[in-house]
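Risk register update: the risk of archive-format incompatibility is retired. Evidence:
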Amino acid sequence: MSQADLCRIYLQALNEGNLENVLSLFVPGAVVSSPLYGIKSVEDFYRELFDDTNQSTTTLLNVFSSNAKTVALHFHYKWRMKNEEVVNFECVDVFKLNSDGNKFEKITIIYDTHPLRAAFDDVKMS
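Archived output:
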């Protein structure tokens, strides 16, 4: 499976809110670094994200890959939070791949939190 295919499967699982499918793409012990949620285990991060989400829709913009076992996924994210607030933003997820290149070891999520910080804080307070 190519790096681009792995990223497309990831976005599909994210859109479906399918925790099991998302986790199947990561090695055990994988870590997420998120500007809103901080550094968490993959399982804790996606469990919390899906709990805070009513619906997500992603639109793939670019996949940047290298032979160094790193791939960056650039996409538009429409996030309907559990309080029905909708935020739209561009996001880049940078994935470190395992030595076989078929699973993610780490994800660093990059985006400007300013446009969605208030809505996120409202969700966390409710």
